[in-house]
Write a structure and sequence with these properties.
Order of helices and strands: HEHEHEHEEEHEHHEEHHHEEEHEEH
Largest sheet: 5 strands, mixed
Number of helices: 12
Helix content: 40-55%
Distance between the termini: 100 Å
Number of strands: 14
C-alpha cells in the first residue's frame, strides 16, 4: 500500500515539473450568477429639445484664387486667340479650353488658335512671354546661390504681325508646367472654404443633448455596473485561480507563461468590480448615439495566439458576460428613449458626411449646387432636432471607436423605427454628390497667361491646377 502511494506521488511530481498544462478538455465551466430581477427606470419629464443656429459653410477646395481671377480677366476682352504649349497639344484638351472660355465669358469670341506665324514669333521671344523671371542674384554666407526676380519688358513689334491674329484683342497662352516643390506646397496650402463653423455647431447641439441624457445614462449605467459586478464576483476569482494554477505548471520563460501573465494583466482591469465600483462594466454611450457596449481597448495586450490550446479564451468569455448582462437590461430600457438617442445619431451621421465632404480636396462645384446642399442640410437639422422620433433598442455587434473612450465592443444600440433616418441620409448623400465634381482630376499644374495684343502687355499670369480650369460647364474657379 505504501509503495502504491509513493508511485502516485512520484507521478504527480514528474507531471508538475515537466510543464504540462491543464487538459483543455476537462476545464470546468465558468461559474455564473443568477440573473437579477427586472430593472425599473424613471422616464425624463420632457422630450429632448434643443436649438441650432444656421452657419455658412462650403466644401474646402485646394488651389488659390488665380483661376477665379482668370474668369474676370477673360471677360475684359471681346475676341481671343488661343495658343497651347507643346505639352497641351491634345484635341480633347483643346476642346476643354474652348468650353472653359465659353463658361467664363460667353461674349468673348475665339477667332484663331495656334497660328504658324505667331508660333515663329514666340520662338524668338520664348514659348511664353514672361514679364518676370527668377534668376541667380548671388550667394549667401554659406556659398549657396539665391534667386531674385528680374523684370523683362516685352517688345512691341507684335503690332507688325497683328493681321496673323485675326483681329484678336488678346492671346490666351496655356501649357502644363512643373513647378518646384516650394511652389507646389504653396499651391496645395491655398485652401478656400470649409465647414468648421457648421461642425462646431453640430458638436454644440450634441452637447445640449448630452446634458438631457445625463439622468438616463446614470440610471442605465448603474444597473449595468451592478449586474456585471454580480457576475464578476462569481467568474473573476475562478479565472484568477485557474490562471495562477496554470502559470505554476509551465516554464517561467515559455510562451505559455507569457500568455498566462497577459491574461492576468487583462483581468486585473476588472478587480474593482469585486468592490464598490466597476469602471470597465458595460455602459450606455451618448457619443455613439445610444450605443450599449463595453470598452475593450486593453484586450490588445493578449497575443493573438494565446487562446489556442489553453482551453479558455478569457477575453471572449468576459465579453460574453458583458453581452448577456447588457441584453438583459436593454430589454427593460424604455423604447421612447431610443427615439431621442436617434436624434443624436442623425446629427452624428450628418457630421461624418460633412467631415468627408469638407476635407480639403481637388474638387469643383457650382453656386447653385452649393445653395441646394445648404438648404438640404438646414432641413435635415430642423427635422432631426424638432420632430418626434420613434425608436427602439436592439441587439448589435462589432467594434466602434467612441471619442474619449476608445474601442468599444457593441452589444446593442438605439435605432429609429422604420427607414426614415436612412432615407434622409441617402437623400443628403445624393445632394452632396455634385459638390465633388472633377475630384478625380490628374491635378496637373497649368501655366495660364493673357497677353494684350495692342500693348504686348501680360495682363494676367498664374499657375493653377487643371481641375480649376476644366470641369464640365463650370467657369474657372
Amino acid at each position: 500500500m505504501m509503495r502504491l502511494q509513493l508511485i502516485i506521488l512520484t507521478g504527480c511530481l514528474v507531471a508538475a515539473c515537466s510543464g504540462t498544462r491543464p487538459n483543455p478538455s476537462v476545464l470546468a465551466s465558468t461559474p455564473k450568477a443568477a440573473d437579477s430581477q427586472t430593472q425599473k427606470f424613471e422616464e425624463p419629464g420632457e422630450d429632448l429639445n434643443f436649438s441650432m443656429k444656421q452657419t455658412d459653410w462650403s466644401p474646402a477646395v485646394i488651389g488659390g484664387d488665380g483661376a477665379a481671377m482668370l474668369t474676370e480677366a477673360l471677360q475684359k476682352k471681346t475676341s481671343l486667340m488661343i495658343l497651347t504649349g507643346p505639352r497641351l497639344q491634345d484635341e480633347i484638351l483643346e476642346d476643354s479650353i474652348f468650353q472653359m472660355v465659353k463658361a467664363a465669358s460667353p461674349e468673348t469670341q475665339i477667332v484663331a488658335r495656334n497660328r504658324g506665324v505667331l508660333d515663329e514669333l514666340l520662338l524668338e521671344r520664348g514659348e511664353i512671354p514672361y514679364r518676370e523671371t527668377w534668376e541667380v542674384g548671388g550667394q549667401d554666407v554659406l556659398g549657396r546661390p539665391y534667386l531674385i526676380p528680374q523684370k523683362h519688358p516685352l517688345k512691341t513689334d507684335w503690332l507688325s504681325k497683328k493681321k496673323a491674329l485675326k483681329g484678336a484683342e488678346a492671346i490666351l497662352v496655356m501649357d502644363f508646367v512643373t513647378p518646384d516643390e516650394r511652389k507646389l506646397r504653396e499651391m496645395r496650402n491655398q485652401v478656400r472654404g470649409g465647414c468648421s463653423d457648421l461642425l462646431l455647431e453640430l458638436e454644440r447641439g450634441k452637447g445640449q443633448a448630452a446634458t438631457y441624457f445625463d439622468a438616463i445614462v446614470q440610471q442605465v449605467n448603474e444597473a449595468l455596473a451592478a449586474e456585471f459586478s454580480r457576475q464578476m464576483e462569481a467568474a473573476l476569482p475562478f479565472w484568477k485561480k485557474e490562471l495562477a494554477d496554470g502559470l505554476a505548471m509551465v516554464e517561467p520563460s515559455s510562451q505559455d507563461a507569457r500568455c498566462y501573465k497577459a491574461y492576468q494583466k487583462f483581468l486585473s482591469n476588472y478587480d474593482d468590480c469585486l468592490g464598490d465600483s466597476c469602471a470597465r462594466a458595460p455602459a450606455l454611450y451618448v457619443e455613439g448615439g445610444g450605443v450599449l457596449g463595453m470598452e475593450m481597448s486593453d484586450a490588445v495586450i493578449v497575443p493573438n495566439n494565446c487562446p489556442e490550446g489553453m482551453g479558455r479564451n478569457y477575453v471572449d468569455e468576459l465579453t460574453a458576460i458583458g453581452e448577456r448582462v447588457t441584453k438583459n437590461i436593454m430589454a427593460e430600457i424604455p423604447s421612447s428613449w431610443a427615439g431621442e438617442f436617434s436624434k443624436v445619431k442623425m446629427l452624428s451621421s450628418l457630421g461624418e458626411s460633412l467631415e468627408e465632404l469638407c476635407a480639403p480636396a481637388h474638387r469643383r462645384y457650382s453656386a447653385d449646387d452649393l445653395e441646394l446642399a445648404k438648404q438640404a442640410v438646414n432641413a435635415f437639422i430642423e427635422q432631426a432636432v424638432s420632430q418626434k422620433q420613434d425608436g427602439e433598442f436592439s441587439a448589435a455587434d462589432g467594434m466602434e471607436r467612441i471619442a474619449g473612450v476608445g474601442g468599444v465592443a457593441v452589444f446593442g444600440r438605439a435605432k429609429p423605427k422604420g427607414e426614415q433616418m436612412n432615407l434622409m441620409i441617402k437623400q443628403l448623400q445624393g445632394i452632396f454628390a455634385p459638390l465633388n465634381k472633377c475630384r478625380d482630376s490628374k491635378r496637373r499644374p497649368v501655366q495660364v497667361v493673357l497677353v494684350d495684343v495692342g500693348t504686348s502687355e501680360v495682363y494676367f499670369s498664374a499657375i493653377v491646377f487643371e481641375e480649376q480650369l476644366f470641369c464640365e460647364n463650370l467657369p474657372p474657379q
